[in-house]
Amino acid sequence: MEYIQLTADNIEKEHICCAISNNKDPQVISKKGWLRDRMKEGLVFLKADIRGKCFIEYIPAENAWVPIEADNYMHINCFWVSGSCKGHGYGNDLLTKCIDDAKQKGKAGITVISSAKKKPFLSDPKYLAYKGFKLADTAEPFYELLYLPFSSQAQPPKWKACAKAPQNDIKGFSLYYSNGCPFTAKYVPILEQYAAENGITLTTIKIDSREKAQNVPFAWTNFALFYNGIYITNEMPNEKKFIGIMEQIKENEK
Fold first, then answer.
1. What's the CA gap between 250 and 254, in Å, rounded?
2. CA-CA distance, 215 to 3, in Å (whole number)?
C-alpha cells in the first residue's frame, strides 16, 4: 500500500478520509482549513492511498488542541482505520510511520486519548495496549491519556488540572466544539436549529485557538455537550439522538 502525506500543495486535490466529499462541503471546508493552519505547527496527516477511512493525524504535543502536559511528546489527534480498510495491516503501517517520524524528530514518545472500553471517536484501547501504550493519567468520566515512551527516562504525560473533572456554570445545554473534527460543521448547526425552533436553551462555544483548547474544562475538545454544567457526551447527536438525550435527562430529574 502507498501512503500519502497531505501538504499545502496537495490538500485541495486529496480527500481527508473521514469526510470524503467535494471541497464545497462545509465539513471538508472546515477541516481542511483547520489542517492547513496546523501544518504550520508541525501537524502530519498521513493516509493510505485508498478511498476510505484509513489515516493517522499527529502533531507535537505543545501544539496539540488538548489540555495535556506532555513535554517533547508527539500527540495523535486521530487514528482511524475502518470498513474494508481493516485487516490488511494498514493501521500497523500508519502507526509505525508515526513512531519513526517522532523518533527522528527527537521526541520522548507518543500520546493519544482513549478510554478503558472502546468509545466512539476515541482510539481503540486494546489495540494501543497491544502496541505497547501505557496508561499515564485519567480524566472523568472515562478518558484515558495513553503514552508510548521511547526510553525509560521519559516522563509520563498528564492531564491539566482543568480537564480532570468536566464542569461549567452554564444553565441549560452548552456545547463546545472545534473544527478539529469535520463532523462538527454538520451536527452543530443541526442542534442549533433544533434548539432555536423548540425554545431550548443551548449555548455554543467554538474552540478556535490552541490556547483555548489547552485550557478547556474537559478532556476531549472536538465536541463536548453539557447540561446545567454536567458533562453529557463527546458524541455528536443528530436531532433524534438529541431528543433522546433530553428525554433521558427529564427521566433522571423525576
1. 7
2. 34
SS3 85: helix
Indicate whether this model's pTM tops 0.85.
yes
Q: What are the start-end ranges of the H helices in the chain?
A: 26-39, 90-104, 125-130, 184-197, 210-213, 239-253
CA gap 195, 193 in Å, rounded? 5
What are the backbone dihedrals phi and psi of residue 165, each rounded to the nearest 5 degrees, phi first?
-130, 95
Q: Which residues contact 79 (CB under 8 A, 6 or more apart)?
A: 55, 56, 57, 91, 94, 95, 112, 123
pLDDT digits (tens, 9 = 90+) for 202-218: 999 999 999 999 999 99
Q: Residue count of the chain, please give it.
A: 254
Amino acid sitting at position 131: K
Domains of the chain in start order, with CATH, are 3-160 (3.40.630.30), 163-253 (3.40.30.120)
